[in-house]
Amino acid sequence: MLQGVQIDLISEDRLSRLTSMEKVRLILDDVMEGNIVVLEKGLAPDEASKLIELTMREIRPDGFSGIEMETYPESEAPAGLSGIFSRLMKKRPGSRLTVIGPANQMKMIKKEKDLISAWVSSR
Amino acid sequence: MSFLIRARKKFSRFLRFFLKKNRSRIGIYGPPNAGKTTLANRIVRDWTGDAVGPVSEIPHETRRARRKENITITGTNGGSIVIDIVDTPGVTTKIDYHEFLEYGLDKEEAIVRAREATEGVAEAMHWLREDIDGVIYVLDSSLDPFLQVNIMMVGIIESRKLPVIIVANKIDLPDAAPARIKSAFPQHPVVSISGLEGRNVENLYEQMTEFFG
Fold first, then answer.
1. For chain B, give me the number of helices (H) and strands (E)?
2. What is the distance between the terminal CA atoms of chain B, rounded to a whole angstrom?
3. 3-state SS record for A41-64
């Protein structure tokens, strides 16, 4: 049988159809099964807060020990008129591609402005 | 820009007066072992002679949010504020009891500590969403500030529009590099201190009266 790790890449389009709680639950259930989740677009701050809280509630001794998560830094807000416009519209600079995995299987090796390097082991 | 900040402060003072809320609840947040309780004890001791809780080198010594009420802080600028200090458990995305075994705890103690720590982190997140008016975000200045949990937490605090002061703690350590923290969070005031030795805390008090007043 083929041994390995499942990687689920979830599109921005799919994420946008989910409520915050559905999004967080989808990620957490997937990661708790030992999968690596890659989100095309990162979570909003409130969703990140819920993800931390729910993760804590799922941790068990000798079982799930939490998540490892990494995202590119937010893209810079546009300067000039368009920047002022986006601030007026309360539009935050978008969070970017995010990778989430089980803490006991995934270790971040390197993170730069435009590169995330991670090491993943199978269970 | 300073006009806008002054106007916002006046408006928030007006709101507090109008809502009869005369004290701000200031949460001390940060990753585990950044020196949050040491700083909370320093603040509370300096202004009331009391303490908040015990400190330890073992991560997650603080596993419940602890509040100390009615602390009056006066800055060297003459400004004064009355606050409640809320010392919170260190925020993280992972807790494994095996980590505590390395500090000499037996398995049962380590499992209990891990369970209480998970509850504590969830509680700290809840406080941040519901009951906190301002944040002191404490970082160990000898460690990399660009950790995802720090970026996420500062993002969450910003999204809630809470005033925040970043504290670059442990400047007494030989490899402390508070400049890295300043470059990681240029959008917020950063105060370099040693909570343990009390170095530069008067500067923090001045910033607190300025930002949380």
1. 7, 6
2. 18
3. CCCCHHHHHHHHHHHHHHCCCCCC
Residue ranges of the domains in chain A? Answer: 7-120
Q: Residue B93 has which token pair?
A: 């995305």
Shortest distance, CA A1 to any CA of chain B (angstroms) = 30
Sign of CA dihedral A14, A20, A24, A26: negative
**Residue bearing tokens 């006009």:** B3
Q: Is B148 within the bounds of a domain?
A: yes
Domain assignment present for B97: yes
For B162-171, the pLDDT digits (tens) are 999 999 999 9
A31 token code pair: 């990661």
Indicate whether B16 belongs to any domain: no
Which residues of chain B does A59 touch, with a Cβ-Cβ cutoff of 8 Å? 94-95, 114, 118
Q: Is residue B61 part of a domain?
A: yes
Helix (H, G, I), strand (E, B) or coil at B32: coil
Distance from CA of B26 to the nearest CA of A (A): 18
Say which CATH number the domain at B201 has.
3.40.50.300
**B161 touches A at CB < 8 Å:** no
Counted domains in chain B: 1
Q: Give the domain extent around B141.
A: 23-211
B4-10 contacts at long range (C-beta below 8 A, 24 or more positions apart): B9/B213
Instruction: List Cα–Cα distances, A5 to A27, A33, A39, A107, B25, in angstroms.
Output: 16, 10, 17, 14, 45
Instruction: State the ipTM, two decimals.
Output: 0.83
Instruction: Write the pLDDT tens digit of every residue in A75-122.
Output: 655 545 455 555 555 445 566 899 999 999 998 877 777 888 889 988
> In 3D, which of B30, B148, B128 has the Cα closest to residue A111?
B148
